[in-house]
Amino acid sequence: MGFELFKSTICPECGNPLSVCRDPGRDGWFQVQEDTCYAKKAMDEHTSDKTYKPQPGQVIYPVLEEGSSEQATSYGANPFAD
Ligand SMILES: [Zn+2]
After folding, report:
1. In this structure, what DSSP letter does residue 71 have?
2. How far is ligand 1, taken at its centre, from the CA of residue 57, in Å?
3. More confident residue, 60 or 67
4. Quick one: which of 60, 71, 61 has its CA closest to 80?
């Protein structure tokens, strides 16, 4: 299966297979879970700042602060640790 064909079977909203999340027979089967992506949090805080004004073509993305890769994680092994 090609990647484009695969992508066409995945819901762009929730990432589940369309055959699952768009099936009326599964209405009520889903729960909502909350979690925090701290990289997205940093991005949201940056872009919601009153002084933030995106420039044409500007790309912004989260990067780990220097030295933060050694800190422990409660999410299992730190993939950035040496
Ligand atoms: Zn969906």
Report:
1. S
2. 30
3. 60
4. 71
